[in-house]
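Lab notebook page, bench 4
Experiment: in silico fold of construct C2
Operator: M.H.
Input chain length: 291 residues
Purpose: comparison with the prior construct
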Amino acid sequence: MSNALQGRVAVVAGATRGAGRGIARELGAQGATVYCTGRSVAGRPATGNRPETIEETAELVGEEGGIGIPVRVDHTVPEQVEALFARITVEQDGQLDILVNDVWGGDELTSWQTPFWKHDLAKGLLMQERAVHSHLITSRYGAPLLVARKAGLIVEITDGYKPDYRGNLFYDLAKASVIRLALGMSEELRPHGVTALAVTPGFLRSEAMLEGFGVTEETWRDGIVKDRHFGGSETPHYVGRAVAALAADPDVAKLAGRTMASWHLMERYGFTDRDGRQPHWENFTAELYKD
């Protein structure tokens, strides 16, 4: 699939770290020009003390073989989002092929094991603003560019594809809402040749997750001693390759409105993670708990 996206233009909203960074890099690895957006820029972290920045992501996109363009955007502010797509209209002559909504910002707002009537309401509502409103605002201003070209793909990044409860009401509402957003957008975009769908990773071995387990990407297997679930984890590149495969698929419209996991797309397209593995979180957990 090398250079399958040469000449394509993408926006990865929430590209600073985690799945967003992995997706941006893998789109770049296929030759795409990737606008890497987020709030964390050099010298101005926006998520606690996390060190990652959109400039770093853009550099990594370049190292993969694509063109990375960092743009600081708070996707909860309509004016900033509108300005982003106005810039793309000028710089890319109106071309936009791929829009990935990965903005999250809810880790610091989620109080696990806390019932919703005791959960901090302001934090719960802010989570919806960051993780749902931002996606809707971004699609509102990005979709016209796709519709004008009668082609393109919008990908909503979520957590989980089943209707099972995710353990915290505000978290569950955010993740389920973007799945519904993908479905609704797919219905309205289909007549215009644009596809919308949702994708979930499995147990994501993000920068924060590696740090929390006290391991690096090279020593990640040491984390299995602390939590056996770590054995079924995947790097952000895995979901990145899933999105890149979707973007390169001429028949992607057949998947409109669906929510698929990284392992579903691995089975469909045959890609591997960076280390050659093909993690299948669902099968892994089924085997783990079969007794």
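Observations: The mean pLDDT is 95. The CA atoms of residues 26 and 49 lie 26 Å apart.
Next step: discuss at group meeting.
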